[in-house]
Amino acid sequence: GENVEQHPSTLSVQEGDSAVIKCTYSDSASNYFPWYKQELGKRPQLIIDIRSNVGEKKDQRIAVTLNKTAKHFSLHITETQPEDSAVYFCAAPRRSRPDSSYKLIFGSGTRLLVRP
Amino acid sequence: EAGVAQSPRYKIIEKRQSVAFWCNPISGHATLYWYQQILGQGPKLLIQFQNNGVVDDSQLPKDRFSAERLKGVDSTLKIQPAKLEDSAVYLCASSLVGDLLRDVNTEAFFGQGTRLTVV
Predict the structure, then answer these.
(1) Which A residues 53-72 touch B at CB under 8 Å?
(2) Which of A31, A88, B1, B17 makes a 20 to 30 Å CA pair with A64?
């Protein structure tokens, strides 16, 4: 992606283990960080997002952490299940020029495989 | 709530031919996006509309791609002429509002996409 770096590109975990995906961004003014899940052949769907007024947000087995100083944010999935297998994308706002609007730039994706 | 509708779902054309994609966003959503997703990559923004005005088209290859949203609702994306490297899934998304930094309701809802194959 355009200055949104995501890693790893692939991640294989055993069912029940945790999975962590990390993203870094470049624009220090960015304050909105969504994570999307895309199952094979389907549309990307928002699973969780965080704004920079908080450092962590949890929703059942999913959590996102944000470090604004280091400009990185991470997705954490605990107690992984086979249905968590999908491609996960992070995103962050970025603008082309100082006078342009912010647009949502996506990372290159992480293919998560949860082995039964 | 009805989702973002796109058509067609699949399209196969020969290089140098033309193709058009259609998108109907969620009712009331002012912001509409067209993304290109090449296999194995993340979605890349091509153009962003706010109502019927273009907010950002810096990544749109304007020599061959065009898009419009004349009445601020439906949108069409056209490629003329197509190249082999245009093979991708073209995703349309919409959101209630468009200021990512200031607004709360910025979640982008995606359509199923149109899978384009250029041969």
Answers:
(1) none
(2) B1
